[in-house]
Amino acid sequence: MRDGRYALGLVRAMGGAEAAGGQGAMDVAILLRLLTHYGAWLGFDGRVVRVQAGRHRQMPVPVGPQRQIEYRLDLRRISRSSQTLAADGAILLDGFPAATLDDFAIAFQPL
Questions:
Q1: 5, 74 in Cβ contact below 8 A?
Q2: Is 81 strand, coil or helix?
Q3: Interval 52-101: pLDDT, tens
Q4: Bridge-partner residues for 90, per DSSP?
Q5: Backbone φ, ψ for residue 35 (5° rounding)
Q6: What is the pTM of this model?
Q7: Angle at 58 between CA 54 and CA 60, to 5 degrees
Q8: 57 vs 46, 64, 71, CA distance in Å?
Q9: How far apart are CA 107 and CA 93, in angstroms?
Q10: By C-alpha distance, which of 12, 34, 30 is closest to 20?
């Protein structure tokens, strides 16, 4: 797949904000889990270690109930030899950015 900002792929997960806990679902740990699941899908295995923390930025969010939440990853680097993934992440509420996590990376270490 050749989409996303860096032409390495775009990973998205969507759902209802009410089912995910409303604004409490704006947790960047979900972006890390999404990247972990993508790495497992690529065939990476082992214990996941966060290599690069990234830059987290919280955006102002409109008050009121949200209907749709989306987690989006733009893959920056995929290294099969070292089993590492780097990405930029964003959390959108009803299509508007609510939080970003830029340039974070994980590695899969053999057990």
A1: yes
A2: coil
A3: 988 988 888 766 676 788 899 999 999 999 999 999 999 988 888 889 99
A4: 72, 100
A5: -65, -35
A6: 0.80
A7: 160
A8: 29, 21, 14
A9: 29
A10: 30
What is the average pLDDT across 24-31? Answer: 74
Count CA atoms within 13 Å of residue 82 on its CB side: 11
Paired tokens of 97: 């950015």
Q: What does DSSP assign to residue 46? A: S
Burial class (CB in 10 A: 0-12, 13-18, 19+), 39: buried
d(CA 23, CA 59): 12
* Residue that the structure tokens 């390495």 belong to: 8
Amino acid at 17: A
**Which phi and psi (to 5°) does residue 68 adopt?**
-135, 135
8 with 76: CB under 8 angstroms?
yes
Q: Give the contacts of 48 (CB within 8 A, at least 6 positions apart).
A: 36, 39, 106, 107, 108, 109
